[in-house]
Specification:
There is one protein chain. The chain is built from 15 helices and seven strands. The termini are far apart. The radius of gyration is 21 Å and the shape is globular. Helix 6 packs across helix 15, helix 9 packs across helix 15 and helix 11 crosses helix 15. The protein is 52% helix and 12% strand.
Length: 387
């Protein structure tokens, strides 16, 4: 019986790996951007900020350079003890929050309770460390006019050279953006929300019940949007850049928050997503439930390699043949390379591709820490003077 369970679990892992690789194939094609919009809806750009004086000014410079002007910009300063409020107040509207629950979702909910969206007004959420292109808001408007109600811009990295860890993080994002996010866009399924670079209509936000209380408010909102019948549309051609952790301690704490929040969202919304897939006879909610429940793809590749070595050195009736695991590991390791090349990732990063193994190794302490971490962790931003 134990052998049957062990082999069944291994087959399930291989099936999950195969599913991810097959779906990734749909990420090869570039979508056609929406035509320029004839209407000019009002946008509200909201920037949650906790002690972001070192970076928020550059984002405000980028917003000053936008080609689309029918918008208002708010900085929601959450318990700041630096010069964030003073720097922002000279340029945009500021909502200062001095107490209340921690977390970006709580901050956004607090702001929208005080200043509800007007009918027809769409919300744009950006992080204070973001750098955005001049066409960002105009592209959001084009896609809204084409029928999109929830939009997610391409999440790029502003500091890939800050450390080996930042390079590994950048490679992971670049691969996932095409193999996971764009693949869902091309399949007509909902992509993931990224917590920043997001635009959604007031109707979609109301239908989803607003921002939740999870430490990963973006994943919770994405689940509630799918349950409400809305789809996150990925914009692969418009890129925002943000800063990734360059030190191990910050990276582990940040990812522990993400892992803990993802576990909570999977527990709270996974069953409802499965029921929605069954009753609605649609695969999209089930796909999201799988993404919420599965471990990182990098970890799955590392696990496959470990099992290949173990099965090869010490064959066991409890393990599938080594060549199956070796094949699974090789496919997962090699598959991202053509997708990275398709996006024009410079060769100086591709030769550092083995650094992705770092992310697989990080998964173990991250998952352990996620079980003990409580509350919000704010990722510090140093800023990149060359970005």
């Amino acid at each position: 019986m134990l052998r049957v369970l062990a082999l069944a679990a291994e087959v399930l892992v291989l099936a999950l790996i195969g599913y991810n690789l097959v779906v990734a194939l749909w990420g090869w094609r570039n979508p056609v951007p929406a035509a320029p919009a004839a209407v000019r809806p009002r946008l509200r750009v909201v920037i949650p900020a906790h002690n972001e004086a070192g970076v928020v000014g550059r984002l405000l410079d980028d917003l000053d350079a936008q080609t689309y002007e029918n918008c208002t910009v708010w900085v929601v300063a959450d318990r700041c003890s630096d010069q964030t409020v003073e720097l922002a107040a000279d340029r945009v509207s500021v909502d200062e929050r001095r107490d209340g629950p921690e977390g970006k979702g709580a901050v956004l909910s607090w702001h929208l309770d005080r200043h509800p969206l007007e009918p027809g007004e769409a919300l744009v959420v950006l992080d204070a460390d973001n750098r955005v292109p001049p066409e960002l808001l105009a592209r959001f408007v084009d896609e809204l006019a084409a029928g999109g109600a929830v939009l997610q811009a391409y999440l790029d990295v502003s500091n890939p050279d800050a450390s080996q860890l930042a390079t590994a993080s950048a490679l992971s994002y670049w691969a996932s953006n095409r193999m996971v996010q764009l693949a869902r866009r091309n399949l007509g399924w909902s992509s993931d929300l990224g917590g920043t670079g997001t635009c959604l209509t007031s109707e979609a936000l109301a239908a989803a019940g607003g921002f939740g209380s999870s430490s990963t408010e973006d994943q919770e909102l994405a689940a509630r949007l799918v349950l409400a019948g809305y789809r996150v549309v990925w914009l692969h051609d418009v890129r925002i850049r943000d800063e990734k952790p360059a030190s191990l301690g910050v990276a582990v704490r940040q990812r522990a928050r993400w892992a803990g929040g993802k576990q909570k969202v999977a527990r709270n919304f996974g069953p409802a997503l499965v029921r929605r897939a069954v009753t609605g006879r649609t695969f999209e909610p089930l796909d999201l439930a799988v993404r919420l429940a599965q471990p990182s793809r990098t970890f799955l590749a590392l696990l496959s390699g470990i099992l290949a070595v173990v099965a090869g050195l010490a064959p066991s009736p409890y393990l599938l043949p080594w060549w199956l695991w070796a094949g699974a590991a090789a496919l997962q390791v090699l598959a991202p390379l053509p997708f990275l090349a398709r996006d024009g990732i410079p060769g100086r990063y591709l030769w550092r591709y083995p650094l992705l193994a770092v992310f697989g190794l990080l998964w173990v302490p991250v998952r352990l820490l996620a079980g003990f971490r409580r509350g919000w962790y704010h990722t510090p931003h140093e800023g990149d003077p060359d970005s």
